[in-house]
Design a protein that fits this description.
Blueprint: E1 2-6, H1 13-27, E2 31-36, E3 50-54, H2 68-83, E4 87-91, H3 93-108, E5 116-120, H4 123-126, H5 132-144, E6 147-150, H6 153-162, E7 170-172, H7 187-191, E8 200-205, H8 214-225, E9 230-235, H9 241-251, E10 257-261, H10 267-270, E11 275-278, H11 287-294, E12 299-302, H12 307-310, E13 317-320, H13 325-336, H14 339-354, H15 358-377
């Protein structure tokens, strides 16, 4: 099949999943065309079946903000016509589904029907969706999609909750991991660069937005390091960075914290961690937690959104209420203080991650593409 994929090219979960999905589809023999304003950060290898089409947005004095949606729609039309796309898969409702619908209508005038699938990833529903000014438009493009998926059952229910006008059936297809991407034979040597043999490593990866509650990571770590020798590694960057630096000075933990900034391939760092901390206020799926588990790292997380669908209480990690730092600290120590228990949690984390192996998820998308294509041909 000829498949178009529209995604954000950044470090966020939706862009990572969309890119890895496209790469896996290309390996299966499909031709995959990425359409975005920049090359996706995970699109680091090109084959005969992988293509990237850049959306160029011109700046006009008339506009405070460049009209990206129009430029994207135009590029979709161009790619669809000249590569003969069978289906378009857009990740994120805003503005990608709207641009896809616009492109679909333009192509229809030339007797070309381009079916499009919208995958909902989270923020487009749980944050943007709470803004009433977007509700009608988002509901419209979701309803006009030829198929709609969400990455978790929690997100599916949130969509119906926040968008009363949505009438489409939503199929849950979870995010996935490629386990081979999280095997690093030299991780023990790398670990010694960041911690002593007697120290445990806690880790957090995010975009440092307020919703990630990174301050709770530092407070959880503060509880742990007062009981056992420990180090904290922070991966990512964002608007909360300065607040985090201020808090580590207040807690006097800066000397025990390593901030790595943005890392395009965090797997090698995950492989050296003993525990992953994800205290988010909301997570529609929690890809960072799944990636940690794939690397054999148990997870301390909140019990919100889709996280309980990934992180199983007392098996792959532990769950706490949002903001309950004391409970997260207690749970972290429960796992870390007993070596045998820690080893079991690490094993369980990897077993849990196997449920989201790309080999199990990819066929679900391929079947959906075929259904949409067959419906289009009738």
């Amino acid at each position: 099949m000829n498949i178009g994929i529209v995604c954000y090219p950044t470090f966020g979960g939706s862009g990572v999943v969309a890119t890895e999905l496209g790469k896996a589809l290309a390996e299966e023999g499909h031709k995959v065309h990425f359409i975005s304003y920049d090359q996706p950060v995970r699109l680091n290898v090109f084959t005969n079946n992988l293509f990237y089409h850049e959306v160029s947005v011109s700046n006009y004095p008339l506009f405070d903000y460049p009209p990206y949606e129009l430029a994207l729609a135009n590029k979709i039309v161009e790619v669809a016509k000249y590569t003969k796309l069978d289906v378009l898969h857009v990740h994120y409702a805003v503005p990608h589904a709207a641009a896809a619908y616009m492109a679909q209508q333009i192509l229809a005038d030339e007797n070309i029907h381009l079916p499009f699938i919208t995958t909902l990833h989270g923020t487009d529903i749980t944050l943007v969706g709470k803004d009433a000014s977007f509700e009608a438009a988002i509901s419209f493009v979701i309803n006009r999609s030829d198929a709609v998926t969400s990455v978790s059952e929690s997100l599916k229910q949130d969509t119906y909750k926040y968008f009363k006008r949505v009438k489409r059936d939503i199929e849950v297809i979870p995010n996935f991991i490629c386990p081979e991407d999280y095997v690093f034979p030299n991780s023990h040597e790398m670990r010694r660069k960041y911690a002593g043999d007697d120290e445990k490593i806690l880790m957090h990866v995010s975009n440092f937005r307020k919703v990630k509650r990174v301050e709770d990571v530092l407070r959880t770590f503060d509880i742990v390091r007062k009981k056992i020798p420990a180090r904290l590694i922070l991966i990512g960057d964002g608007p909360e960075r300065s607040n985090i630096e201020k808090l580590c000075r207040e807690l006097d933990t800066c000397s025990q914290i390593t901030s790595m900034g943005k890392v395009s391939e965090p797997g090698s760092f995950l492989s050296i961690a003993d525990l992953f901390v994800l205290p988010s206020e909301t997570e529609s799926f929690g890809l960072a937690a799944l990636e940690a588990m794939a690397a054999g790292v148990p997870v301390i997380s909140t019990n919100t959104g889709g996280l309980p669908e990934i992180n199983l209480q007392g098996y792959s990690g532990m769950l706490s209420n949002v903001g309950d730092v004391q409970d997260m600290g207690k749970n972290a120590l429960y796992i870390l203080e007993d070596e045998a228990r820690l080893g079991q949690f690490k094993h369980n984390a990897q077993m849990q991650a196997q449920k989201f192996h790309i080999d199990k998820i990819l066929p679900l998308y391929e079947e959906l593409y075929r259904k949409v294509q067959m419906k289009n041909e009738k």
